[in-house]
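Sample intake sheet
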Amino acid sequence: MSPATVRSKTADVEKDASMRKQKEMMAAHYDRLTSAPETGEKVCSTFVPGNINELIGCFDLVNNLPEVNAIQNGLRRTSGQYVLEAEKIGHSEDVCTYVKSDIGMLAKGNVAPNGKPFPNPDVLLLSYTGCFTFMKWFELLREQYKCETIMLHTPYMGDGKITPNMIEYMVKQLREEVIPKLERVSGVKFDIDRLRERLGRSAQAEEDLVHVLNSARRRPTPIDAYFGGIYYIGPIFGAFRGTEDAVEYYRFLRAEIDARVAAGAGPVTPEGDMAAEKYRLVVEGPPNYTNFRQFWKMFYDEGAVVVASSYTKVGGVYDLGFRHDPRRPLESLAEYCLGVYTNRSLPMRVDMLSDYIEEYGADGLLINSIKSCNSFSAGQLLMMREVEKRTGKPGAFIESDLVDPRYFSAANIKNRLESYFQMIEQRRAGERSAA
């Protein structure tokens, strides 16, 4: 076992120290959130893609993220009952299972992972970025909570670039709609210097996160950028971006990964350090959370590691160069919302995935198509074919769902993965023969 790896006291699972630290941070956040009725803190519900957490923090609001709550329910295997409850109420089988998990949880008492009830939000803030479902989701929540709702509209990057008009449009909304409403809800006057400080802390954390992600270019890679990456992105995509806690966490994570590099260690898995790296993959699409460990095991048992993934960019594409900029505070928030992965056109996504395969020395592209997630699944087969054509590397296609256990078929996924790895081996043998 490497020095950076520890065994969890609560389960027979090995985790990086950073993974345990991330879980402790999340637990503390849920305690703060569920204590809001006693402490008098006010709650802002918002989403991960394009969330403007730095601005929310300027008003002393506690961040609540409904899709993160759905993920927690999936990992705890409680989401299935919530999905069924939502369908019983009348929601279609084709509706995003994040939504149905949240709505079903609400119908069954709205209990947080720490066993305490979630407080009602004081404000719903939707910085819409690439997913129309989010708008309908917040309409449902608005009907339930009858609270202030703020819509920060983010233009879609259909032409593949951010224009000055887009930024100007979003900054105008921030100045005239978002900030005045947050002032009214919170009772706190906006301080732009406070926002600049928080943006500066975000940029520090982002720099360290990119260093960690880039470490996957090494052989062996010290990280798994998909399964392990879920832990690594948690603080910066969720409630902690812009805080000292985030700066400290990503400094800690960077040091941990540098130690793994120095030791020549591969990524840690739930069963310890991965023995050998046989296949390097780029993955498109979210993971399945209801069978997360079983899903991951199908990869590391075969020596397959994910060196880059699109899912770990839904809350920011920092590895493509973006950093929050304290010198341009509102413009920086706008650019962040515009640039996240789910707001990128399909050609932009193809470019990104193709570049990842080349830059990270991957053997090919694997797509996990999510039944209920249109913002990811639309166009994925066409994307796979185009990436194959550009890179000359084989693609593969598996299917599951986010937090609905009915759509996870272990045997089907395992068979497809084994066939894919055989395809890679055949491709390698052909290349050796040609050489």
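Comment: The chain has one domain: 5-434. The two ends are 38 Å apart (CA to CA).
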